[in-house]
Design goal:
Strand order of the largest sheet: 1-2-3-5-4
Number of helices: 3
Number of strands: 5
Oligomer: single chain
CATH topology: HIT family, subunit A
Radius of gyration: 17 Å
GO molecular function, one term: nucleotide binding
CATH superfamily: HIT-like
GO biological process, one term: nucleotide metabolic process
CATH architecture: 2-Layer Sandwich
Keywords: Hydrolase, Magnesium, Nucleotide-binding
Organism: Aspergillus steynii IBT 23096
Shape: globular
Largest sheet: 5 strands, antiparallel
Strand content: 15-25%
Pfam family, one: HIT
Amino acid sequence: MSAAACVFCKIIKGDIPSFKLFESEKVLAFLDIQPLSRGHALVIPKFHGAKLTDIPDEDLKEILPVAKKVAQVSGAQDFNILQNNGRIAHQVVDHVHFHMIPKPNEKEGLGIGWPMQDTDMDKLKALHEELKSKM
């Protein structure tokens, strides 16, 4: 998707209104219009890219500090910071975005399944060596 067709790029440009919480040269934070709970907000880089790996490091430096501040001002005691990459990973809008989702109780906020796998220590050791060599 091109930046011109991107809903978040249109929000950044002001073509689509939003409930802005914070804006700087590289970052925008605004309330989600389909919230999972009160205070659910999005923090996005202004640089257009579909996946986290598409965004230059320089454009990511403010993201977590801004998400932290949004969490603090929301008053949430418990919350999730969520960032999805790709359709099967539940990404709907093809512009990197971080959700700050307050979790006030079991019913509201983000619900997660966590399908843990049994550990094969030999395979885990081999994977560790493979990944570490690429870092």
